[in-house]
Amino acid sequence: MHNDPSVTKFGDVTRNDYFRLLEVDGKFLIVGAANKFFNLTIDGLKNISVEYDWPPGLNELKDCGMKTSDEEEDCKNYIRVLTRDDRNGNLLVCGTNAFKPLCRVLKRKSEKFDKTDPYETVLEFSGTGLSPLDPKHNSTFYREDDFLYAATVADFSGTDSLVFRRNISRIEDKGIRTIRDDIKFLNKPQFAGSLSTSNVNLQINFGS
Known about the structure:
Strand content: 35-45%
Domain Sema: 1-208
Low-confidence stretches: none
Organism: Acrobeloides nanus
InterPro entries: Semap_dom, Semap_dom_sf, Semaphorin, WD40/YVTN_repeat-like_dom_sf
Radius of gyration: 17 Å
Protein name: Sema domain-containing protein
GO biological process, one term: positive regulation of cell migration
CATH superfamily: YVTN repeat-like/Quinoprotein amine dehydrogenase
Number of domains: 1
Mean pLDDT: 83
Distance between the termini: 31 Å
Number of strands: 14
């Protein structure tokens, strides 16, 4: 399979990228990976139209190295949230950021799109409660206007499961979450997905 020329390959061929399909946008698939996300054409995945690089900062890498024995794999920024604001085209992107989740709002630098350096950061804030700390933890999210609803874990050990809502247009917003350590709300959940319907504004699906 690795040597088959008919198979399209992207990402790091030597390490686990923990790929996550984040959004289907017309003819494109937006996929989160280690330190970046890809915008791929659905037609054979043959064309990577945009690749945004976002590795952790030096301080995050230093702190991460004290928490894990596998720095090469764990101390990366695995992209786990990406949504587009239909009103202005801005992207909200959140990642694990070497066990210190972080979110950015990205804006296109110009109308003449440059796929090698396409975005500028217009807002940055903590992603705790929106993105997991570890890419192996299951999570899901749903956006409605300026509010992001996420179901994930908010601690290093993966025991603090929560459903969280935050206004992503206000950097000072602290959000609201489910009660911590109350098994009547959440008891070791595995978050499998989320959806919105005409009768139910938000539904979180749980796996076994």
